[in-house]
Amino acid sequence: MTAGMPAAGPSRRNPPKKSKKGASAIRPAKAKKLSEKQQKETLEREAQAYVAPEGLKTFAELPISEPTKRGLKKAFFVDMTDIQAQSLPVSLKGKDVLGAARTGSGKTLSFLVPVLEILYRRKWGPTDGLGALIISPTRELAIQIFEVLRSIGGLHTFSAGLVIGGKNLKDERDRLSKMNILVATPGRLLQHMDQTVGFEADNLQVLVLDEADRILDMGFSRTLSALLSHLPKSRQTLLFSATQTDSVNDLARLSLKDPVHIGIGDTGSSSTVIPPNLEHHYLSCTLDQKLSILWGFIKTHLQSKTLVFLSSCKQVRFVFETFCKMHPGVPLLHLHGKLRQTARLAMYTKFTQAAHAVLFATDVAARGLDFPRVDWVLQVDAPEDAETYVHRVGRTARYESKGKALMFLMPSEEEGMKDALARKGVEVQKIKAKMSKVQSIENQLQNLCFQDPEIKYLGQRAFVSYLRSIHLHKDKSIFKLTELPAERFAESLGLPGAPKIKFLTKEMAKQKKKQEKAAAANAEEDSDEEEDSGDEGDLHDSSDEEAGEEEEEPTKPKAVRTKYDRMFERKNQTVLSEHYSKLIDNDVDDDDDFITLKRADHDLDEDEPETSEQSKRKQRMMASKAKRAMLTGGLGKKLIFDDEGKPHELYEMEDADTWINEKGGIRGVEGGGAPAANVRDKEEAKEKKREKKRKRKEREKAEAGVAGEGAMVLGPDEDADDDGYVEPEFDLPPSDSDDDRETWAPPPPAKRSKTAHTRPDPGIRTVEDDEELALRLLGRRS
Known about the structure:
Distance between the termini: 145 Å
Helix content: 40-55%
Largest sheet: 7 strands, parallel
Structural class: alpha/beta
């Protein structure tokens, strides 16, 4: 703006008015800042002095900030659950909390509300770094916690981040230093703490461990100890879990300071809390009947939302793929730890939003996940312990809704599992399956395995992984590996036979040794008794029988191959398609050494070992077709077979000595030497040439003789012996003989005498003489 413009006038005339406006604009801002500071101080005093009344029910009654209250109301969280009403008044004061409550009781808000409030009251800003850290055992639970945090904390100015495995490490690295609240899984968090430059947690205010028992069970105890060593000791720690085990109590002693126990009656013993609206059932069946009963249940509950638990990823994949091909009439989903992160999130979202569906899952879906309106929880494979049972069935009967749980138990597991659950206060009622509704699917699975090698491969892996899970279970009084009907179980999966498994063979050998020792001990006792009684004959007979049995054992006949073995050997079962390669390329596990593969022992010539340079050069040469032909001995050859059936090359070279000696060299043919017919043909050809030459000379002589007499030769003389006619067989080229065709040439023209025209004899009358005579006669007449 220039100096002479009229707009500059009013600013000079009314400076007091502008200053008044400026002052009035500044005063409310200062007042607002002061009021916010006072509000935070007031909230701090109220929280420290707050005593929860007996009828505490709503979040509005708590000493929390307005942004948190509005966020909770916006997300439709109004009334509190029991665990929230007990823990929030304590955690808002900044004390450590060790909480245990049944699944679906609202533990997530029990630690998210204190996280937001502690940082808000301490005026946490973007430059202050990481203020709160929430550790979750699984990716799905971490995602769920992060979504709840976004829904209730959207009115705050904090920045929040999600750090889980399966995502881009570089993108997380760039944003990590800007986060105030972080939700993470243990492995990826420790990786960032060790590798990411600038990521520090020195100012951490709140640490939350959700589902702490699961974190320890998944093998993260060392990782968790390493994480705690990176964190400051002057922090508030909130530890929540559905079950309180000895390992959780040990972790609490290490990481919590004077914690307040919430929802736990006896702090020194394990505690399990069961949803009150849940019905517990179990049915007894054999191992080979499980899939048939499961199929019958799905077909009779098409309008239900069902969650099916299996013990391993391989079983989940096998059951999912086979049931999809059989088309039960309800959407099928699967969720396990070997899926990619995007696929896991997609499956979780689909099942959450679906009204009717069946989700096959491992224990990765057993902790903390909130699936709405789940009607049934089926446990096809028995849980490892009572705590796992509690977490599995906790996916239904969430908060105040109802649900049903059904567990499949084998006769060998029935009594032991019932006793283990009874010790935890869980009573399960036995029911029977309606066999009229159960349809055996063994033949269908067998057809699928025969038609598709990929299904057979997944069946083998499912078989091995199930037996391995039983082998690794701690309670051997319930899970008895040697009593499992392995052969029958393999047939129920559609396999032609049970794959050989090393640990199963070892267990069987151990069991056999124990039985032999027990039998030997019993035999010694019996022999002692018989010796005392003097009955030596019976003792001798029994020893003979034992010796006979020992002799027969090494010579037992091998198992006869069944028709299923021969049927499955028709296809190459080791090649997977592109679809299953994608499924398996991330499936890195240590199950492969449990399957023993027998390789054919081919009798190959052992050459000198090639060096690495030679092998690399061969690989490069094999890439080219021409060079590959050089290495492999040339291209393919076409063979012909003689009358005796012996093969020969199309253009076969013979030995030079044999050709010269036996077949007469270049002029010879098969049979040795030139035959008489060939010699005769050559002589006839020569005779024909001589005859042609002789006749040609006779014609020339005859023509020369006639010309010498002065007569004009118009045609051959009829009285002459040689009339000049030549037979066609000597004039035309022969068509049968190649030798005659090569030597044939047209006869040369006959030579005429030049003297008959240039120098005629004066005594001979010529045509010119006759013409001259005629002219004279005409002249005389005229």
